[in-house]
Design a protein that fits this description.
By secondary structure, the chain is of the alpha/beta class. The protein is globular, with a radius of gyration of 15 Å.
């Protein structure tokens, strides 16, 4: 099992931004992965959900939509919390992670975000399991309340917790 770097912070605290910065700072073929990027309604500017985006080429799929904004957008889906999730997004995530594991030049993989869904064996659980079993370094975004559940569920022994510190705090 490779090392897992846990970028931690509460909701809207900057975990995804930090993971994108890590990717951009390395600026090589040695790191790649997926991030969950907020989506806003083009007309109203309201938050409506998340896209799942591959960092190296910006390819993306819709990950989830707020329940109240959902209008039969997905063929295969499930509800969790305040969102409707697309099964296709998790298939996309698994295909990206499989591709990155095969690439010898990739030594670090980013997955955003790991949490309650994965603790239940859903969401990015399969992609995360593949990544940590690959002996590559893995970076994840994770809410602090989920760290113990994820460490126990995936039997992670080699990890570092990197808290997001916002200016003025």
């Amino acid at each position: 099992m490779g090392k897992v770097n846990m970028i931690t912070g509460d909701i809207n605290n900057g975990k995804t931004t930090k993971l994108i910065e890590i990717f951009e700072d390395k600026n090589t073929n040695e790191i790649d992965g997926i991030v969950s990027v907020k989506v806003f309604d083009e007309r109203t500017g309201e938050f409506i959900g998340y896209n799942l985006q591959k960092l190296s080429d910006n390819s993306k799929v819709t990950l989830c939509i707020l329940k109240e904004k959902y209008h039969d957008n997905f063929d295969n889906f499930f509800e969790f919390g305040r969102f409707i999730f697309s099964e296709k997004a998790f298939e996309f995530a698994e295909s990206v992670i499989k591709e990155l594991i095969k690439k010898k030049e990739v030594i670090s993989i980013i997955i955003d975000e790991i949490g309650e869904l994965e603790a239940q064996g859903k969401g990015f659980a399969n992609a995360f399991e593949m990544a940590i079993s690959s002996n590559k370094e893995v970076y994840i975004g994770i809410n602090p309340k989920n760290i113990v559940k994820i460490v126990n569920k995936f039997r992670i022994t080699n990890y570092t917790i990197i808290p997001i510190v916002k200016a003025g705090k």
